[in-house]
């Protein structure tokens, strides 16, 4: 029987077992390893494709999964829906400019369509299509990697690696502690810059002044980093980190049936897209 006092005590105890918080989007509830394993074969296959249909299919698939299964803010949604086609179009021109005309099929209709001509240099539709295929491959790989990147945090990935793939926890949590130094250093740098402004330190403008500012920031930032590293090392040693071969996990990251279903369904869709690309070619 649960009393009011025990309920209050449990709510104050950060180590008390908490009920799982339901997630509104399904990608956030999947195992991080499932979100890495599912698109991995597709990302490998994309490297060996040369057509337009296959990477385009994976771009549409990744966009659909991100929009339906991930919690995205409005700027991120706009960037995906508008930035992706614009980026692919621009990269298609950039990659198409570097295409060797000798490797193009001169007998094709696209090779005879000139989009831009400067002197003796011609930018044909065939060159743009080759560049567009390369841009689509790049975009598809980036979007497929965002399936795990936008829905998984560093601690979740480390827990999944340690508990599911048996990565030594000494390596996993040490790497996680090192990654957490980055926001700490960013905060310390903001504090140092604010302190310089309060003291009225003015190094001037221009590249030489930028180098002086960097040097003036480096020494106090290095001192702060050393102090923080010592505190982290003492905290880990006080908790006997690494003294035992195994570690009791506060949060369990297990492989469940939805993870298997997601990976299997993604691989089936991957095979269908590759088959469709072969037929379209």
From TrEMBL:
GO cellular component terms, A-Z: plasma membrane
Family matches, as InterPro entries: ABC/ECF_trnsptr_transmembrane
CDD domains membership: EcfT
Subcellular location: Membrane
Membrane topology value: Multi-pass membrane protein
Short name of any one Pfam family annotated for the protein: CbiQ
UniProt keyword list: Membrane, Transmembrane, Transmembrane helix
TM spans (from-to): 52-70, 77-99, 125-150, 260-278
Record protein name field: Energy-coupling factor transporter transmembrane protein EcfT
Originating organism: Agromyces bauzanensis
